[in-house]
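Quick question, first post here. What does this chain look like in 3D?
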Amino acid sequence: MIMDYSLDIDFLKYYLGKNYLRNGKRYIFDPIRKMLVMETPEEIVRQK
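> Answer (accepted):
Ran it through. Tokens below.
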């Protein structure tokens, strides 16, 4: 028996907010905190 553990996630259907580029670093606008936060893997998950 073969198990397929691949994830079929369409990331394009999740809106992560507007992305900004400031001082060569990427930021995401957080509407709850009403501020720009640096785009990190943790922050991307939090914004979903």
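The chain has a mean pLDDT of 76.
The longest helix spans residues 41-47.
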